[in-house]
Amino acid sequence: MPPMPEVEVSALEKTYPPPGPWARLRGRAAPSRPALRGVSFHVDAGEVVALIGPNGAGKSTLLRILCGLLLPDGGTARVASRDVVKDRPEVRRHVGAALSDDRGLAPRLTSRQNLRFYAALYDVPHREVDARIDELAHTLEARRLLDRETRTLSSGEKARVVLMRTLLHRPRVLLLDEVTRSLDPGAARRVRNRVLTDAASRGAAVLFASHDLAEVQAVAHRVLLLDAGRIAASGTFADVLPTAEAVFASAPPEDA
Amino acid sequence: MRRLLAFLRRDFEIATAYRLNGLLLAAGGLFTLTLFYFLARTVGESPTVRGRYGADYFSFALVGLATATLLRSLQRGFGNAVRAAQNDGSLEPLLAAPLSTFHVIALMTAGTVAGSLVRACGLLVAGSLLFGARLSVHPLTFGVTLVLSVLAFSALGLLSAAFVLVFKRGDPFAYALDMLSYLFAGVLYPVDVLPDALRMAARLLPATHALHGLRAAALEGAGMERLLPTWGALLAFSAVLWPLAAWAVQAARRHVERTGTLPHS
Known about the structure:
The complex is a heterodimer.
Chain A: E1 5-16, H1 21-25, E2 33-44, E3 48-52, H2 59-66, E4 74-79, E5 82-83, H3 88-94, E6 95-98, H4 111-121, H5 129-139, H6 155-167, E7 173-177, H7 185-202, E8 205-209, H8 213-219, E9 222-227, E10 230-235, H9 237-250
Parallel strand pairs in A: 3-8, 3-9, 6-7, 7-8
Antiparallel strand pairs in A: 1-2, 1-4, 4-5, 9-10
Chain B: H1 2-17, H2 21-43, H3 47-53, H4 57-88, H5 91-95, H6 101-131, H7 139-167, H8 172-184, H9 196-202, H10 206-219, H11 224-259
């Protein structure tokens, strides 16, 4: 029996509307900005799929739609067999999302206090909360961070706590947006491998955005290359690499 | 219930992390009570207040201040909680949790409201024990009036939160309503001293009815029959404001999710 797709995206469209009349009056006119144009793909249970592409290609937009924080304009997206627009609270129960620039930790609380708080939001059984926190802290080499206030943590240490928060409720689908970029290369590799091993052991689907092609080559079963809101190529890393190199080489400079 | 406790516990842990916070709040409360105690002695007996509630001016002002503390935290606390979460980046992770937008906003504000309730009760107790305020509380009618007031003002707070979700900055309507309430709803003086036109306009403010009801229940021990019209007015405000607030919160969430401005501060 073929594995069940945990993420199914079909002809997904998203265009950011132009700024409102007040912004236009202040001379900040800008046209509407297409972010996703007919994107279709799937991620099966237990599969690790990488999302690559130049800045502004639509990677973060796609991940935000899948975790129910952004509405698409067209197409459909289903996560854990539920529609991300119609069944949003239920979808969120099965998703663990660590988005770029995630700052959702209360700075005056310790990492453990923050994690206990999120465990309650996700209905993690009360008896299991501390055991899960300790287990994840061991897995992500973060035991010494647990009783420190998060305002005293470095950005790399905060990234570990955010990852722990993401994994705490054992989600069926993991959506990760460059979460290991603030870790040093050795720690990033170890943390990444442990997160993916944990996800694979539970049969979770993983979709992660990254600019690190070595990371993508090392861990992804499949790769999706996004360019200007479209899937420019998909397949194994070797399949996608020639197109990816061409896309990255032709990406216009930021101020062009 | 577990989530409510989680939010309350988190807010309590944050509040107690700032060591001087409680001390400064207590000192501020005592300062206010002292100020009004001597102001009341200066003003002396007010026939209008005595005639209306059978109380001295200090007791009258004390209940007004305690009520205003609570109602203000409801009216502005929801919007302030959303704004704080936008600024510290916690709004997006909270809205990514398996809860409705309404629940997230309500739970985010629970700590502020609980803190204000404690402060309001603290003012009443300290005013009564330390400054000799004369309260004659009817527990049942006071409780019912309090619940109905909280209900009406929570809807106003949710409307304010919807505004902040979209426009990010403070809600000007909440500020205006707050100012109008302080001026015309009878926080520090009875509405009877206002000109007729303003007195009529004051009836359109929910704070007027909440203050009147809570004062009558706390100062005179007014019973149900006397407070039925006040309860009816507060219920009418809720009946109008709650559907509007529910719609506004949903519309605001859809707007920020459509425009992609949810993570913006």
